[in-house]
Amino acid sequence: MENTTTKQKVAQLARYFRTFTGLRVHPLAPSPDEIDIDDIAHSLAHQCRFLGHTDGFYSVAQHSVLVSELVPEADALWGLLHDAAEAYLGDLPAPIKRTPDMRVYRAAEERLLAAVAAKFGLAPTLPASVAEADRIALATEFRDVTTVDDLDWIVAECGFAPSECLWITPWPPAVAEDRFLRRFWELTKHE
Asked: Strand 17-18 to strand 24-25: parallel, antiparallel, or no bridges (unpaired)?
């Protein structure tokens, strides 16, 4: 009897994990109440873009701040939070994420983004300007923080050339977390 109870308890615990702030998050069935901006900022500041295949550490948080600055003001909060699901799921390389076998991951990512949108009062779908800015940022990141030096490949992969008006200098995690949170508060101070 005790063995069955222990197994049930372990199964229940396996449905969620604890975040940096101590919240319980159910990554496969998230609730907006489980989403916290401090958890998002902290986690994304400690995750390196490109699975770490960069010249130095370059965080998802810095990427998110960049995207938020490339879009119209009305879409800036979505730009900042467009990768927020990665704070709860991590990320996968695009060639893997796009495969049919990864539909469970993609569905979990969609549910988390829906919870993020609900939590922060965003429209339920990602604005087109954010998707475009994400691709421009990606192209610029390939140029500035990776060893990729083939402009034709970058344009083919991203659909855009790197920005000629922008050069990226990576921030350490503590700076990225602080700037992410400052950007969030700047964008939400009127709400």
From this structure: antiparallel
